[in-house]
Amino acid sequence: MKEKSSLTPEDVAAILNIAKNTVYELIKRGELTAYRVGRKIRVDLQDVEAYKKKGKNLESTPVNIPATTEIPTLQLEASLEGDSFSPSPRLVICGQDVLLDILARHLERHPNGTYALRHNVGSFAGLLALYRGKAHLASAHLWDGDKGIYNLTYVRYILCGIPAVIIHLAYRMQGFYTAKGNPKGIKTWQDLKRPDLVFINREKGCGTRVLLDEQIRRLGMDRRQISGYEREEHSHLAVASAVSRGEADYALGNEKASLQVRGVDFVPLQKERYELVMLKEDMDLPPFQAVIEILQSQDFKKELQGLGDYDLTELGRIVAEV
Q1: What local confidence, expressed as pLDDT, does residue 147 receive?
Q2: CA distance readout (Å), 145 to 59, 98, 211
Q3: Domain coverage including residue 40
Q4: Which of 71, 142, 237, 321 has the fewest CB atoms nearer than 10 Å to its CB?
Q5: Using one digit for the tens of pLDDT, what is the confidence trace for 175-197?
Q6: Distance from first CA to last CA of the chain, Å, rounded?
Q7: 124 and 55 in a common domain
Q8: Dist. CA 48–CA 5, nearest whole Å
Q9: How far apart are CA 46 and CA 34, in angstroms?
């Protein structure tokens, strides 16, 4: 092999007589310094020689990545074409709104972006995945009924002291789905007390369920008195569909789903903040900077405006560092 000062991962693998996947592991762990040229990874020959001289066992796993490396501290993928990443790395984005699907698509096209894996879970599950290192971004719309604020309280406690950044996505309206024409006259949170109504609930841990339980607590109710409270579905569309089929009199969800399901009306109750959370330590890495740039771009905002039913006045604004 012809020596050169700038080496591909394949070159490094040949020099060290190891698998190419192991080279990516060494880079990810910070044992081998690397840098990007566009979407490609390069290693200087002198850094390979320095690694060889250290005589490190390839199974060692240092926990700190040197500040000089430009490789994000994320899972590096070995599915490549040539020596370009495809993708590198993948970001896991937790949340259930179509807005996040659009974000993932824009991220794939961004010069510093990457491919994203979407995990459709509720706010609690998403924040727990972020805390456990199983996700890189998580959306949240968790209401603190005592303070009258969204997300800040939950992010602080679920992430258990790990610094995080909260970025605003959109305001959405939450309310009751009812049968067309609202024949039961459902209008306010007080209607949760009515014994003649059958409810259908969302799963534990999602933002809609948290909002419901907080309102029940504030009303001083016993949730077991709500007929149908124990029956759960895992999306806005699922509960709206159940109402349209007559399987329940009402359900709680966002306005957008009511426009997608025939035979339901929407009773607006509360405007919520829908926001994105990332770890502060990741914020300066290229893929995360790409996310922020996308959220603050006019192209992204225009596409969301085309969908309607979002208040985007604060889209992309960093609202808190926790």
Answers
A1: 97
A2: 49, 26, 8
A3: 6-74
A4: 321
A5: 999 999 999 999 999 999 999 99
A6: 51
A7: no
A8: 10
A9: 11
